[in-house]
Amino acid sequence: MAEQTKSAQVDAQKLDPNMSLTQTEDAGLRWLSPDRPPFRLSGFPWFGQDGLYRRLPSRPKHTLPTAVDQLANSTAGGQIAFRTNSARLSIRVALAGKANMYHMPATGQCGFDIYLGTPGDQQFFGVTRYDHTQQTYEAELFHFPHAEERHVTLNFPLYQGVEEVWIGVDPDADVYEPLPYRSAKKAIVYGTSITQGGCATRPGMAYTNIISRRIPIEFVNLGFSGNGRGEPEVARTIAEIEDPALLVLDYEANAVDTDLMRRTLPEFIRIYREAHPDVPILVLSKIQYARERFEPALLQKRLEMKQIEMDTVESYRSRGDTNVHFFDGGVLLGTDSYDECTVDGVHPTDLGFLRMADTLTPVFRELLKNEL
């Protein structure tokens, strides 16, 4: 019998140059902070107050659940937009922690990605390539042979905090304000890990970011992984966000049982309505999980939850609040191969998020029609 040999470790970075990391050359770049004009910073409603890349206030008026308070440091949905004629663009980032997720790439958890083009015509160009064992990195985003004006949008990491970020341009380059949003108001989406963007391979593929490229207003992503549970303190804090155009409640997946949904959803809407009597509210039920075909209890729970959400919306509408709406999230992944749209049966892949965005875009457009 021939002697069997032990398999050798495969190092793709050595075997394929396209998989390897290259050193960035920042010599001569001018480094700018995006926290002041002409840059536009979006997705952080309390940045002007706290100066932090954080999705909720650092000193909230209402005591937040500990996990929600910590997850607010994840920068999901944050964006930097500007125009520049620089031929080169780089980024320096100091993260709050290292990449550590087993089912989500470091590019989605901790990376930035870049889109070029004006609102409505934005196209993905690249993503930060860095050593994911590190907590700080510098990455080149583009290096063109000629300088010309380009409209740039950068998406913040989905599942990590960002302590510092700097934008590097050619020393003689100009930086201008981006084209304005269609409206000064904001679309606010509250929910779960799926809302936050788990498990997109890069930030631009979270469904709120996809829709933001199609509907040119500011989106605020308030997905809190495992902890979107509809607490009244969270509702009161979200109600503080100024100039809302739409509130989406997408938290069913974290409501541990029907009793919690039955208690929290009517109260969440009531609290928000006190502050914003006319803003459209969309209640979005949960996506279909892959295991439902084999675990009938999961399907039954989703249908019971959906009924509670539908009944709550109908209750408000029957009392005259016709600006509360319901949409069945069970169709968001499609009816064909919906089970192929997640990484673990629960959290969407890029395909899943794209399907979600394709279905929700016309729904959002209709509810935002007064702002477009």
UniProtKB/TrEMBL annotation:
SUPFAM superfamilies: SGNH hydrolase (SSF52266). The lineage of its organism: Bacteria, Bacillati, Bacillota, Bacilli, Bacillales. Pfam families: GxDLY, Lipase_GDSL_3. It comes from the Bacteria. Residues 30-174 form the SGNH hydrolase-type esterase N-terminal domain. InterPro entries: GxDLY, SGNH_hydro, SGNH_hydro_sf. It comes from Paenibacillus flagellatus. Residues 185-364 form the SGNH hydrolase-type esterase domain. This is Hydrolase.
